[in-house]
Specification:
The chain has about 150 residues and is α+β, with helices and mostly antiparallel strands. It contains two helices and seven strands; from the N terminus they run H-H-E-E-E-E-E-E-E.
């Protein structure tokens, strides 16, 4: 299946444009993504997540992390200074990349760390108090006096 027709979704729903756009972009990303660099998405707590990306061969200065309109973008651009080396075999891929992650509502990036060739990005889902479930107490109905 190369394409997914979302026309029925647009015809029968109102206000779900973002969901349809997410589905469409996810399908397009799967078709164009070569799987580089490899990554893990981990649930680390009740409302915390981490994304770990294998960025062997990249320095902190060669990586760029941005969040815009609910999309986390991680890009790596290798400096050309290392092109002077003559390799007999080069098995470590250090090509430039751009990896995008769509974030759910109320998910924010808390920070990023890099250790041993792994970039880890911490995410937190903070639901506003007004959106959290709340218990509604059932009150007593007071009788209305009749005259």
């Amino acid at each position: 299946m190369n394409t997914l027709d979302l026309t029925p979704l647009y015809r029968s729903t109102v206000g779900f444009d973002r969901v349809a756009n997410l589905l469409d972009s996810a399908l397009r990303a799967n078709q164009t993504s070569a799987g580089y660099p490899p990554y893990n998405i981990e649930l680390t707590g009740e409302s915390t997540y981490s994304i770990t990306i294998a960025v062997a061969g990249f320095t902190r200065e060669e990586l760029d992390i941005q969040v815009e309109n609910g999309t986390l973008t991680v890009a790596g651009k290798k400096n050309k200074a290392d092109d002077q080396k003559q390799y007999l075999y080069q098995g470590i891929a250090t090509r430039s990349f751009e990896r995008k992650f769509n974030l759910a509502d109320y998910v924010r990036v808390e920070g990023a760390e890099m250790e041993n060739g792994l970039l880890t990005i911490q995410l937190v889902k903070e639901i506003p108090e007004a959106m959290k479930p709340r218990k509604i107490e059932i009150g007593q109905n007071t009788a209305i006096e009749q005259k």
